[in-house]
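Reading is simple: each integer encodes one residue's backbone shape. The lines below illustrate:
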Amino acid sequence: MIRKREERKKERKKGGWLNCLLIWMAKVKQVGLLAAGCQPWNKDVCAASGDRFAYCATLAIYIYQLDQQYNEFKLRSIMSEHKKTITAISWCPDNPDLFASASADNLLIIWNVTEQRAVARLDNTKGVPASVSWCWNSADGVAFVSQRGPLYIWVYGGPDPGVTVHKEAHSFLSDICLFRWHPSKKGKLVFGHTDGSLSIFQPDSQVGVLRVWNVSRSTPLDSFKLKKTGFHALHVLQSPLVKKAPSSCSPSKSQYTSSTSEAVPPPTLSQNRSFSLPPGHAVCCFMDGGVGLYDMGAKKWDFLRDLGHVETIFDCKFKPDDPNLLATASFDGTIKIWDTNTLTAVYTSPGNEGVVYSLSWAPGDLNCIAGATSRNGAFIWDVRKGKIITRFNEHGKNGIFCISWSHKDSKRIATCSGDGFCIIRTIDGKILHKYKHPAAVFGCDWSQNNKDMIATGCEDKNVRVYYLATSSDQPLKVFTGHLAKVFHVRWSPLREGILCSGSDDGTVRIWDYTQDACINVLSGHTAPVRGLMWNTEIPYLLISGSWDYTIRVWDTRDGTCLDTVFDHGADVYGLTCHQSRPFTMASCSRDSTVRLWSLTPLISPLLLNILTDQPWEKIIGNTDTAMVPGCPPLLCGKVSRDIKQELDKLSLDIKAKKLRWFSECFLPPGGSSNLWDLVSVINGQDDSLLPASYSKGVMHMKHLLKFKTSEAQELTIVKMSKFGEGIGAPSKEERLKEAADIHLRLGQIQRYCELMVELGQWERALSVAPGVSMKYWKKLMQRRADQLMDEDNDDAIPYCIAIGDIKKVVTFFTGRGQLLEALLIAQGACEGNIRAPQSSPVNHTTNDVCKELAEWYFQDGCAVLAACCHLAVDNIKLAMSSLIRGNELELAACVGIVLGEVANQSTAYCLELLARKYMTTATRELLADLIRMIPDNYILLAKLCAFYPGSAAEINHLHERCGLPSLEECKPLAEAAVSEGDLFSAVKFHLLSSEPENALQIGLDHVKEQLVKPEWTVDSVQPILDLMSYIRTDRLIMAKLTEVRSELLILCGYIGGLLAIRRQYSSIVPALYEYTSQLLKRREVSVPLKIEQLSVELDAWRVCTQINSNPPSECQRQEFNRLSLSLSAALGLHGADYVTGSNLPSHSDVQLSCFTGHKIQGPVFMLEDGKSAISLNDALMWAKVNPFSPLGTGLRINPF
């Protein structure tokens, strides 16, 4: 924590003239996380409690929780206090917030899951615990056992804490792998030994068959074949998960059966009639690292992650011809390939390779990966064929630490090893060079500018450069200077002759091959450096990862550390980005996760230059210009040059293409291409120009059925699937069947149908029901659908569709969180493919489902995909709202500009927020250009000039550029406005004068006069308060302005609270009211506000808007109605902000919000004291309704 705060203090010292206004926020944004799989080393590695379940990778525990709104499990936290392999976990049965975990370093920890902190630690368990379980007789007692016992009981709280030994549980004949207390017979427990024993729930570890046993029988009740790979661990929930109940379809029917009454079908039974299967969920962990939560009653997965690394991930690389595919190499002996759009594994190597230290993709589209292992040499894996096609064993049994496939000459592969050799060979195994080093070689890298040059990093602390075009085995250059072994080396992709090296001495050194010298030493890491990555567009940008758990971003021009990222929970090994998406970085770590980051905030001035259509020389440059210290970032790589060349060929639609191509280059995966495709569809682009990838994302409603029909036809041609009938219900007595047959022969069809229903033979009943009438058939279909829906059975769907009950099937899907399926059904009905009753508004259903799907994406931290859902039904206003609420301001501005007039209002608001974002960093001229893009920009230009604290000459120059009067002219204009009664203009001109403080008293007096009027509204006072907030900070914080400053802060806080109510910013309303109350208590002011009145208003808001068992009183209702009258004006943006990454747990120090005292989920925003923190989402909402810091200092906050 101390280390992080020091970093933040340094960060704030680096700004320019407005350091005090830049409250700290990380520049690198986490945008994706690939969670680890469940470890296969130990048995007691999964647990569940209530609506949460947990499993552990080797070094971290993953906690998932049910999202009640969407019936979906989401990753809530990752706990990584253990430094050695975690061996067992257990959830407290009496307190769902308490959780125990043990590890191989004889450590046992009690966690508070909600607060994500360790409550108690036992540092010596006298052996490695193989299993842990909470004691039946003590809420703060945990039992644990290792090998053959004894069983220890640790009481960590209460009056008599300590460790005791169980009197009888010791001296077993074989090792213990699991033990459990009996759930009802107190004190009774069962041990599972490594030599085998029978448990109530016993998985077959070879074929992945889950068998459910009844202990009074010798055969299983039921079997589920779940996965081809075997089970590793299993945990059954003692009580079923509390999920959102599906809508009730029909009341229960009477058991009495006559020829016309409705028969009640029997409950579904398993094949063995004597025992029915109880409803239950099982946490299943598989040998391949897969993790799932299986609903045994419904026979379906509630949650499933098919694959995941279970150990340290040493390397990661993007596929050269596809920025959406990322390969990872792990200690677990596998290479996995991930789709970064869906964050799922799509391929995995055969495995059993020992440790895979390094990987390298073949150039271009060859679809092969070279891997380096600890014991099996090197290999080439053909991804499409799914097999190893070549092996290299020249290093013998020595570990190979690095492998590098030449991208200039696809026939050459380099490896370096612990045997001291760097070997260059052809892909068919012919050795070209063997470069002998005096010690182990850990890293090698091909020059990207010279195909015959390669650099190595060695244990002898030196960096060497070899030239392959000669026959000599001696290096051309040897660079010395590191104080410990050199691990990785990387050539700059943009500057010829420049390379960097990372070392165990904690430094990164920059070497110039042409000067034969070290030109910079980057110091800051506190442990060995492992990951290294040059940016492929910005020549000075270098990123490093270290055993100190951090990632650092460097400006190599002067050695400045631009940002430090703390979110990994262990050593950071691999860093990579793709040339066509240069500002999306992937990192991998010993914490078994891969994380995706956006580096775009580091080059924000570039975005503004592109948005405001600045000349090309301010966007694209050469490396010499870009490397000048202090020069704004310039793009120097291949992707930016390619974009410019393509734009130069165009004669039409240049601005739209420019904004699209650059935004796709800058933005991380997650729907930006999908978004632009939808914008093109709305703007009338021909369907034939849509890319093949369009049908895989969120499609416009007019395309949904067309593409899905095509997909179905393709699947039919490619693979004809045969589905079995499933487990049928057992038959009734023969005489009942005989009776039914008699009724049928007598022509009593309805009676026959009812008997068939009673026998559970629905298909027979339905097949003859039209013989009664179509009305009866539909009614019978409806009953069948209702029964299946009550059982949460997908078989209900065809019945609902056949009778046109669209609303029911859409409700069924949305209730289960299957919104995409609901959308497809609704659109099918909308286009007339499903015959629905005329009274059913199917178009309205489609829009509702799209809106719900958008909200699901938004709450999952995917604002871009949420916007796609709104664009799919042409709802441009809500699409722009999603982007703005997700703080994707640059993308929203680009999209709004391309959409044109239909998005004008949202675009203007977005540009205004962008102007606030860059007000403290961009040049004033550039900011003025941005503001000029907004219609009616005069007031915004005035705010910009009022806020600028330069010299008189600089201020007058800015006034002239913005078309405003000079400093000298403003004062008389202000006095004239006062005499004319134009108080808004008076405040504006005073702010623009050399004595801006004169504006405050005039403006505050006006606001106070308004507040005592009975009919005042927020809109009558907010504009002038907002204008006054742009007074220069150096003037506002002067001692002589203490009273007026306090009044301004109080009034901004109060009006901000009302605006937050209007915008439905529920999480910050109490904080704004508390802020205002505290300022009223502490400061001598004269404002028409009373603390008691604030308390009454807040209580009324709470009881009238939030779910509460107590209905509001009449007084509270009247108070809330009065509040609502002051908020009467409509506003386009409603709902809380939720930025990308808000749903991602962090390994870094847990920050508590100074608003709520609770742990902050997602990005953190640090306030100016360096100690107080709030969530970035709360900071964004606060800044939109109150520009001043929550600490009451008078500083503005800028979280945008």
In short: The two ends are 25 Å apart (CA to CA). The CA atoms of residues 1102 and 1108 lie 9 Å apart. The longest helix spans residues 1042-1062. The chain is about 30% helix and 25% strand.
